[in-house]
Amino acid sequence: MNRLQHIRGHIVSTDKYMNMAATLPSPLTTHVLNIAQGVPGANMTIILYLLDPISSVWNLLTTGITNDDGRCPGLIQKESFIAGVYKLRFETGKYWDAMGMTCFYPYVEVVFTITDPSQKYHVPLILSRFSYSTYRGS
Amino acid sequence: MGSVKGPLTTHVLNTGDGVPAARMALSLHRLDPRMTVWSLVTVGNTNEDGRCPGLITSDAFTPGMYKIRFETGQYWESLGQSSFYPYVEIVFTVSAADQSLHVPLLVSRYSYSTYRGS
């Protein structure tokens, strides 16, 4: 590698460091695991909602798709993460359909209460065609 | 008098305490495909064994999308405890071939799981 390439490499990596510092990780994370096939649940659509306590309407916050690792970074910004009742909707039916298989669950909605938004919350989905589970992690 | 097991059964287990979840309120709903609204089919409570017989009759158990809503938040509250989930809804698809479906819920304050049994 010549000197210019070497210097450019340093400048680019500093930029990356500054960008990472500017975008704090989401305090709410998820992870989809396909335990039927022993792989991460990749390319599954996920939607995050927050319940409006006065109107009892679900307000859409984020739509995302899980990456190859079954994760969906950037679900919510730390500043937007307030106490309340949230819902994570996983498009499980569409996920299995894309692989040419049926699923007992057309979608999975996990509704949970955030009492302390200063904490980190992990809401994973462990899934097969005929079962699923979730737990509160951090 | 003998009683025939209904076409749809559930069983709620409190995995936190290792006991059946007794006296938990739940409701069964069917999706009206034309109007995409949920119609209430049955309201009930689990018995001492965590079961709720008589959810639906065979005649009424037509193919379609159903959901069981378990009032888990109320259940933990009645035990003087908080829970991460205010309620749990399990949405599932019933096909014409489904004669006998079992949709159990294993629940603790911070986790739950379900599977399709028969």
UniProtKB/TrEMBL annotation, chain A:
GO molecular function annotation: hydroxyisourate hydrolase activity
GO terms (BP aspect): purine nucleobase metabolic process
The keyword Repeat is annotated on this UniProt entry: no
Domain Transthyretin/hydroxyisourate hydrolase: start-end pairs: 23-137
Record: residues binding substrate: H31, R71, Y135
This protein's UniProt keywords: Hydrolase, Peroxisome, Purine metabolism
Keyword Hydrolase belongs to the record: yes
Catalytic activity line of the entry: 5-hydroxyisourate + H2O = 5-hydroxy-2-oxo-4-ureido-2,5-dihydro-1H-imidazole-5-carboxylate + H(+)
Gene Ontology cellular-component terms listed: peroxisome
Signal peptide: none
Localization annotation: Peroxisome
Family the entry assigns: Belongs to the transthyretin family. 5-hydroxyisourate hydrolase subfamily.
Role: Catalyzes the hydrolysis of 5-hydroxyisourate (HIU) to 2-oxo-4-hydroxy-4-carboxy-5-ureidoimidazoline (OHCU).
Xref: PANTHER family: 5-HYDROXYISOURATE HYDROLASE (PTHR10395:SF11), URICASE AND TRANSTHYRETIN-RELATED (PTHR10395)
Name of the protein this chain belongs to: 5-hydroxyisourate hydrolase
Protein's organism: Phoxinus phoxinus (Eurasian minnow)
Lineage: Eukaryota, Metazoa, Chordata, Craniata, Vertebrata
UniProtKB/TrEMBL annotation, chain B:
Keyword list, A-Z: Hydrolase, Peroxisome, Purine metabolism
Annotated localization: Peroxisome
A biological-process GO annotation: purine nucleobase metabolic process
EC code: 3.5.2.17
Membrane spanning stretches: none
Binding site for substrate: H11, R51, Y115
Coiled-coil stretches noted in the UniProt entry, renumbered to this chain: none
Enzyme class name: hydrolase
Transthyretin/hydroxyisourate hydrolase domain mapped to chain residues: 3-117
Quaternary organization: Homotetramer.
Biological function: Catalyzes the hydrolysis of 5-hydroxyisourate (HIU) to 2-oxo-4-hydroxy-4-carboxy-5-ureidoimidazoline (OHCU).
Identification of the protein by name: 5-hydroxyisourate hydrolase
